[in-house]
């Protein structure tokens, strides 16, 4: 079915009406206007997708005006630039169907009254696009992010399932609560928010902030790369991975990127932990400033559970120089 013209495609739009569209296969392509599920006049609209259903629309708005709208993504693929809630009552249930972005969007998923992730999970494919979801998600299921683009989550979610970043970048600027995050090879997780336990697989990346910022995790196992950006301008501006539990860096690669002036502070803390596994990073690449070293138990005045870029204090440097001089004299 192809719907053209400038008018909207409305499911449930008349007073006391109860409109239902149930798609288990085939294609509905809305080439003009937007799609409204439940629009005005206390109307109720329901869109249910399953199996191989394919629904394409520039925007899908659920619960418009005084309407009540429900979308059940039980299967198939919903392709749109925006899935939004209106001023009415809106519910979207993610249960195994794919939500695929078709354009860059700052309002990709937003304004929905209840966005519930059920046991089938929420599957979000950004393709090559960069999209932002301010929506908070609830429910017992998990979320899988695919596609080479970037998905930015700014809502404070409470869903109980795991989060998988299978491709592209996931930026968490809100909270995923206790959801455990796994990052596949080639993918990246970052942002300035809060996540549960993080596992960064070999070939994957983790980096706090959107540029420089703080990412908080309950625990972290890094078998890939920890990306750290820092600005050498006074004030110690640097990414911080704050791990409240155990941080495992046994197989981790540290990659440092200087994005501002040359380093001039005595110390830059870029990771904190409740406990540490691994005596050091497996390797260090990038912009390690001359004269600095990595201190894996740096005392910031409150605790020594910090990893920092540190330049030796003058006294320590003097003692080191005197020791070297004594060694040379003894050798003479």
Describe this structure in words.
With 332 residues, the protein is mostly beta strands. The chain has 1 helix and 37 strands. The strands form 3 sheets. It has a 17-stranded mixed β-sheet that branches. Strands 2, 5, 8, 11, 14, 17, 20, 22, 24, 26, 28, 29, 32 and 35 form a 14-stranded mixed β-sheet that branches. Strands 3-6-9-12-15-18 form a 6-stranded parallel β-sheet, with no helix packed on it. The protein is elongated. It starts with a strand and ends with a helix.
Structure characteristics:
mainly beta; disordered C terminus
Helix/sheet category: mainly beta
Silhouette? elongated
SS strand fraction: over 45%
* Unreliable runs: 315-332
The radius of gyration over CA amounts to: 25 Å
Number of strands: 37
What gap, in angstroms, lies between the N and C termini? 92 Å
Instruction: Specify the helix fraction band.
Output: under 10%
User: What is the mean pLDDT?
Assistant: 90
The count of helical stretches stands at 1
Mind summarizing the main beta sheet? 17 strands, mixed
SSE diagram, text form:
Elements: E1 2-3, E2 9-11, E3 18-23, E4 27-30, E5 35-39, E6 44-49, E7 54-57, E8 60-64, E9 68-73, E10 77-80, E11 83-85, E12 89-94, E13 98-101, E14 105-110, E15 114-117, E16 122-125, E17 130-133, E18 138-139, E19 143-146, E20 150-153, E21 163-165, E22 169-172, E23 181-183, E24 188-191, E25 194-200, E26 205-208, E27 214-222, E28 225-231, E29 237-238, E30 240-243, E31 246-248, E32 253-258, E33 267-272, E34 275-277, E35 283-286, E36 293-295, E37 306-310, H1 314-331
Parallel strand pairs: 1-4, 2-5, 3-6, 4-7, 5-8, 6-9, 7-10, 8-11, 9-12, 10-13, 11-14, 12-15, 13-16, 14-17, 15-18, 16-19, 17-20, 19-21, 20-22, 21-23, 22-24, 23-25, 24-26, 25-27, 26-28, 27-30, 27-31, 28-32, 30-33, 31-34, 32-35
Antiparallel strand pairs: 28-29, 33-37, 36-37
